[in-house]
Amino acid sequence: MLVLRILIGVGLAYLVLLLLAWLFQDRLAFPAPRAKLPDPKRVGVENGERVELVSGDGTKLVGWYLTPKVGEVHTVRNNLPQPPRASPTSPTSAGLLWFYGNGETVAAIWPIVREFQPPGTAVLVLDYPGYGGSGGRATEGALYAAADAAYAALTARPDVDPRRIYVYGRSLGSAVATYTAAHHPVAGLILESPFTNAAAMAKYHYGLLPRFLLRLSLDNVANVRRVSCPILLFHGDADRLVPTAMGMAVAAAAAGPVEVVLIHGAGHNDTYDVGGRSYRDKMWRFIGRTGP
Q1: pLDDT tens across 81-130, in order?
Q2: Nearest to 160 by CA among 265, 234, 262, 65
Q3: For every residue of the chain, which 3-state class applies, written as one string?
Q4: What's the distance, CA 72 to chain centroid?
Q5: Distance of CA 149 to CAs 62, 104, 225, 263, 271, Å?
């Protein structure tokens, strides 16, 4: 009798767990931290401006736009096909869309965005719906709608060449980035710590939960199969949150040329620190800017 009661109790607990997983999977995938968007001028980013956009579903989004800055000269030394370069007298520049990880906001990562901004390249980074200072609620569809709005806003900038749009995505942002590259013309795609898809991540971290509960897709593998532009992929070789094997699987699935850079000794959240300047310079070289 006691054994039966224990089995019934375990069964009920498991059913409750399934219900909670069904109800709150968006919150697990998109924790949506809130933070006030800082004014770029007040924190010393003189080439930055606060921007406000409205996505297709009516959500109000906020973020930063960084105008192109003059920096170091870098020569491309990889064997990937290179996009068209601007001449020194070109009135337009390349543009970079930046999509951050699931626990980040513009307020948290702006020093990195400023440090990593490629010379001669404009950067647009937005808070996702429900994140930072943006309105709305974080869902997979809302993130993709925000990406569409960000792409449209960047390509509409008079100082940006729409033929030279690059997309950067880290962790969760990799899914937003690959979606963008699969649905819009881009010159290059940069991924950092990408996972294969939501189903594989759920199996890796929550193996007891049945797959039919999962509503999320976040399918990097399916997206990169539709992407023919060059891809630069970074991954920490000590990443235990998103296994390095997942990043390699994304690289293997890509339709276009891929360069993989393993950051030795880096886990999931210290890639910028461990990768340092070599990470940044590799990204700059990939974008192919030689400076004005």
Answers
A1: 444 444 444 578 999 999 999 999 999 999 999 999 999 999 999 999 99
A2: 65
A3: CHHHHHHHHHHHHHHHHHHHHHHHHHHHHCCCCECCCCCCHHHCCCCEEEEEEECCCCCEEEEEEECCCCCCCCCCCCCCCCCCCCCCCCCCEEEEEEECCCCCCHHHHHHHHHHHCCCCEEEEEECCCCCECCCCCCCHHHHHHHHHHHHHHHHCCCCEEEEEEEEEEECHHHHHHHHHHHHCCCCEEEEECCCCCHHHHHHHHCCCCCHHHCCCCCCHHHHHCCCCCCEEEEEECCCCCCCHHHHHHHHHHCCCCEEEEEECCCCCCCHHHHHHHHHHHHHHHHHCCCCC
A4: 25
A5: 11, 20, 23, 32, 28
Size of the chain, expressed as the number of residues it contains: 292
Angle between helices 172-183 and 140-155 (to 10 degrees): 60
> Tokens for 228?
């023919």
Backbone angles phi, psi at 258, to 5 degrees: -130, 135
Is 189 in contact with 178 (CB distance < 8 Å)?
A: yes
In this structure, are residues 287 and 70 in contact, taking their beta carbons and an 8 Å threshold?
no
Residues facing 97 on adjacent strands: 124, 167
pLDDT tens profile 36-59: 999 999 999 999 999 999 999 899
- Give the separation between CA 124 and CA 234, rounded to whole angstroms: 20
